[in-house]
DNA sequence: CCTTGACCTGAAGTTTGGTTGAGGTTTTAA
DNA sequence: TTAAAACCTCAACCAAACTTCAGGTCAAGG
């Protein structure tokens, strides 16, 4: 044995340990807990003690974030997982399928934009009022409400 | 008086007119001017008067924003355009080609993520320490001087 | 025992891309 | 002429996702 002859298996983790193993900053871990994405119990001295599952949850959070899902939504998704136990394969498949769908939508939106850009690079479209880039009926979910646009010259 | 016939060609535009024609809020126009993305002159009463080109520039700004380019970068790009005259086709091609490149990179990053997600939906990867989604690099904690996940996005 | 180092809390600061509001001036149309 | 509509500035605020800081507690080692 290297270190731990008497170390209990599946020890709980301090916040510093979670930080080191997950790559998150301690402040981010606090933040996620405050936002309800992860939980901890407290020891006698009021220090956080995390179940090891927190590492898996953090991994899920990071994946979801990379797909562009906001934390509030990730939190809601995590709340559908069984409490205090590891997510099952089925849990993970459910979440990841949903996120994959959103990711696909995002990719498709960007791809459409790219195609338009492609088209318009050639034609110098921006000088024309009917350019599809200038009048994006289509792509408004990426950002902003912007419900105007038309206006005869 | 009845508007249509004697209107001077290429009149300058008030901020309200720019707002109506561009679909931006007046506050956003002020904001863009403060950030150096557009310019205006002032009339005798200190009101903004915009060259009509501002509409084309705003169109460019909106396209760039949709590709995910931050305003500061858009501002820098716009500063490479000829001042006080309309961007030429060549100008537009230069900018849009650059932005298209970035857009492509973004799409590719997201596509790679999707492929990983695809792969990992099947295998329940997140329970394994060597999952590519979970982190190509960190896994065994112990000392990651560069605790970054794959690619940032 | 005593000193670090790890941890605690709550508040405030950061960045991006704006919006909202107060208080005052200018333009316009009746 | 006069009232409304449009405009002005500056400051404060919003949301997301965190970080930093101040001031205090807890735990571990020499």
Structural summary, described in words:
- 2 copies of one chain form a homodimer.
- The first copy, chain A, has 153 residues and is mainly alpha-helical.
- Chain A has a single domain, classed as Multidrug-efflux Transporter Regulator, Chain: A, Domain 2 (Orthogonal Bundle), CATH 1.10.1660.
- Chain A has helices at residues 15-22, 26-34, 53-66, 71-79, 89-123; strands at 41-42, 48-49.
- Mean pLDDT of chain A is 78; it is low at 1-9 and 137-153.
- Chain A binds a DNA duplex (30 and 30 nucleotides) through residues 14-16, 25-28, 30-31, 35, 44-48, 65, 70-72, 143-144.
> What proportion of the residues of chain A is helical, as a percent range?
40-55%
Strand order of the largest sheet of chain A: 1-2
Unreliable segments of 5+ consecutive residues of chain A: 1-9, 137-153
How many structural domains does the protein architecture of chain A include? Answer: 1
Broad CATH class of chain A: Mainly Alpha
How many strands in all of chain A?
Answer: 2
State the end-to-end distance of chain A: 79 Å
Report the β-strand fraction of chain A as a percent range. Answer: under 5%
Report on the biggest sheet of chain A: 2 strands, antiparallel
Average pLDDT confidence of chain A is 78
CATH topology tier name of chain A: Multidrug-efflux Transporter Regulator, Chain: A, Domain 2
* Oligomeric state, counting identical vs distinct chains: homodimer
Show the largest interface.
A-B, 48 and 47 residues
What is the annotated CATH architecture of chain A?
A: Orthogonal Bundle
Class from secondary-structure proportions of chain A? mainly alpha
Instruction: Give me the Rg of chain A, rounded.
Output: 23 Å
């Amino acid at each position: 044995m290297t270190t731990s002859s008497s170390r209990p298996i599946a020890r709980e983790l301090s916040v510093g340990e979670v930080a080191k193993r997950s790559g998150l900053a301690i402040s981010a871990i606090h933040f996620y807990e405050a936002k309800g994405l992860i939980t901890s119990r407290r020891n006698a001295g009021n220090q956080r003690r995390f179940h090891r599952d927190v590492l898996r949850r953090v991994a899920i959070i990071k994946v979801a974030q990379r797909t562009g899902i906001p934390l509030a939504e990730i939190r809601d998704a995590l709340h559908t997982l069984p409490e205090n136990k590891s997510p099952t394969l089925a849990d993970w498949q459910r979440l990841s399928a949903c996120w994959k769908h959103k990711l696909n939508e995002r990719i498709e939106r960007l791809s459409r934009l790219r195609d338009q850009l492609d088209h318009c690079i050639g034609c110098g479209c921006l000088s024309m009022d009917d350019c599809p880039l200038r009048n994006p009926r289509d792509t408004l979910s990426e950002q902003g409400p912007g419900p105007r646009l038309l206006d005869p010259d």
